[in-house]
Design goal:
single chain; 517 residues; alpha/beta; TIM Barrel; 4 domains; eight-stranded parallel beta barrel; three-stranded antiparallel β-sheet; 40% helix
Length: 517
């Protein structure tokens, strides 16, 4: 077991709202970002990267509101190596209790030549100027050499040394394209520690992408080499194949502190809540076999495993469900359950809802209980997540009646409330779902294309709720929607409407510039 002192503590830098949001279909509005920020604060994340302020007005406002709201975690904003970017970031961050400016520039030969069209000396000068300017505004400055793992070592060390001299307090080494492997990355961090003369004046951070499925392994290797900050995201969301998953890194350090020699201050019991909250906001469901937070992470089906579990759970579980916020419930929920029991169940599942929201959820719970013989925790999670997808929607589901079968035709009679007015239509299609989607398009004409339609059972049994995910695309904008219901077609309709509402919201929000550090 490692000695619990600050030299062995790894800071968790969460970039769910910045890099994670760049995953197609994962952009969040202001209210959603504030929800995530509070969840991250409850998780005791050390640094919350709230966005890229210069990229859009929406991002600027989100960073500013998160900076005003969060009091326990540090709040960071991203900026390229330009004074305009840095000034905009500081304008958004300046009301934070503990602000951080995170500035970056590409340093690999490929990026400098193709993307920046700058010579190495020009890039070096930009590093010094940007970090110096940021430090004049903010006491806490982080600098990143984008595509650091493909950067010439001599040039990387030169830039790091100069960044620290200019005032950087954290040096982040990104594996921007998920290119490195654990042994190589371990050696790179050791090289930086050994060759940069003033490295002791800054904290080494790493930011790993998952293109080869090695983001968590690379992050752990870097920690073993001396990195003391890790940049990661809830559920590993992010561009392309995503980022290192926060929950996996944190639980690896907690479970194998003896082997890794480091620890975090994360409140791990809030992990499941944070994972579920993000899934409900983005519409990205976690795969069942996902480590730590997947539905099967603590499930045992093989007979030999079950026999061992009944004798001692440590035979097949290296961490307890309770350690990540899962509980073994003693409250059996059904149609005779009262409001107080339901409220306790919500608290147990990690939800903190106001009285009105609890009442609305309770009404829907009772409706579900009349349809289902047994209510599982997953049913309640799906029900509440479906409810809290956000106010201000232009389109609301009212009712749906379908006719289907082998003889046809398949029809859908649909009612939607659009901008406060209830409208109805009948449509035919190739099956009830197709008829329903055509009915939506008839009531609210749009050019969005259906990219993904996915149905999963929330629980077991023929009366299980169907969880549906829909992905729509319109002129490069992507939005995910999800919903659940015991009727698959109703769930499909609700998910489509949810995605369409998110797409409409995105028409008001653009991302003219994307960061990839």
């Amino acid at each position: 077991m490692s000695t619990r002192d600050d030299s062995n503590r790894v800071l968790i830098f969460d970039t769910t709202m910045r890099d994670g949001e760049q995953s197609p279909g994962c952009s969040m509005n202001l209210e959603e970002k504030l929800r995530i920020a509070k969840v991250l604060e409850d998780l005791r994340v050390d640094v919350i990267e709230a966005g890229f302020p210069i990229s859009s007005i929406g991002d600027f406002e989100a960073v500013r509101e998160v900076a005003r709201t969060i009091t326990e975690s540090q709040v960071a904003g991203l900026a390229r190596a330009s004074r305009k970017d840095i000034d905009r970031a500081w304008e958004a961050l300046k009301e934070a209790k503990r602000p951080r400016i995170h500035t970056f520039i590409s340093t690999s030969p490929l990026h400098m030549r193709v993307k920046l069209r700058m010579e190495p000396d020009e890039v070096h000068d930009a590093v010094v100027d940007s970090v110096s300017h940021a430090r004049n505004l903010c006491d806490d400055v982080e600098w990143s050499p984008e595509d650091g793992t493909r950067t010439d070592h001599d040039f990387l060390c030169r830039c790091i040394e100069s960044a620290i001299k200019a005032g950087a307090t954290t040096i982040n080494i990104p594996d921007t394209v998920g290119y490195t492997v654990p042994d190589e990355f371990h050696a790179l961090i050791l090289m930086v520690r050994n060759r940069v003369p003033n490295i002791d004046k800054a904290r080494i951070s790493v930011h790993c992408h998952n293109d080869l499925g090695l983001a968590v392994a690379n992050s752990v290797a870097a920690i073993q080499a001396g990195a003391r900050q890790v940049e990661c995201t809830i559920n590993g969301i992010g561009e392309r194949a995503g980022n290192a998953a926060l929950e996996e890194i944190v639980m690896a350090l907690r479970t194998r502190e003896d082997a890794i020699g480091a620890w975090t201050g994360i409140h791990t019991e809030s992990i499941t809540k944070s994972s579920r909250t993000l899934s409900s906001i983005t519409g990205f469901n976690v795969q069942p076999n996902k480590a730590v937070v997947g539905a099967n992470a603590f499930a045992h089906e093989a007979g030999i495993h079950q026999a061992g579990m009944m004798r001692d759970s440590s035979t097949y579980e290296i961490m307890t469900p309770e350690s990540v916020g899962l509980t073994k419930s003693s409250l059996v929920m059904g149609k005779h359950s009262g409001r107080n029991a339901f409220r306790e169940k919500l608290i147990e599942l990690g939800y903190d809802l106001g009285d009105n929201a609890v009442q609305e959820a309770f009404v829907r719970f009772k409706e579900l209980a009349d349809k289902k013989k047994q209510i599982f925790d997953e049913d309640i999670v799906a029900l509440v997540d479906d409810q809290v997808q956000g106010p201000g929607e232009r389109i609301r589901f009212v009712s749906l009646q379908v006719v289907c079968g082998s003889k046809g035709p398949q029809t859908a009679d649909l009612e939607l409330e659009i901008d406060g007015v209830v409208k109805q239509v009948s449509a035919e299609g190739d099956g009830p779902v197709d008829a329903t989607f055509k009915a939506i398009n008839s009531l609210f004409p749009h050019q969005a294309k259906l990219q993904l339609y996915q149905v999963d059972a929330v629980t077991e049994g023929s009366d299980a709720q169907a969880g549906v995910m829909v992905r729509l695309e319109e002129q490069g904008r992507i939005a995910n929607g999800q919903a659940s219901d015991t009727d698959t077609v109703v769930s499909s309709c609700r998910a489509y409407v949810h995605a369409l509402n998110r797409l409409l919201a995105k028409r008001e929000k653009t991302h003219p510039q994307r960061a990839s550090a």
